[in-house]
Design goal:
The chain has 143 residues and is an alpha+beta fold. The chain contains four helices and seven strands. The chain has one domain: Electron Transport, Fmn-binding Protein, Chain A (Pnp Oxidase, Chain A). Helices cover 18% and strands 49% of the residues.
Length: 143
Amino acid sequence: MNMASDSARPVPEELDRQECLRLIAPGGIGRIAFDDGEGPTVIPVNYAVDGESVVFRTSLEGRLNRSLLTAVPGGQVRAAFEVDAFQDSTHEGWSVLVRGGAKPLGAEEKERAVRVDPWAGGQREAWFRLTAMEVSGRRLRRP
């Protein structure tokens, strides 16, 4: 075992909830994971952070909207949301996972929600909020 090369490698560190939320606070692109009825699936979405919640939009006709709508008004669907940032050249970076309940936003909630500007064209009128029940993350950095 080459000790010099091992000591030069980035080491993983666990991130606390506050650091995780700070890292994802700028918004941008993340991935929402959910069960679409055919099994687990992951879809990229534009998002914004609102306190300890993640807000994102999708099309009314899309699989994400159909899968996250619930039959119980005010109900939530279990989902996960992941964001990461890595530098290939240094092998350093971080990854944050938010797990909780996703629910559609009503008209009044949309008016009060943080602004999310989708990159994709077309109508993105289905708004959702994923409320964080669990937030975890890891960072790779040089010692």
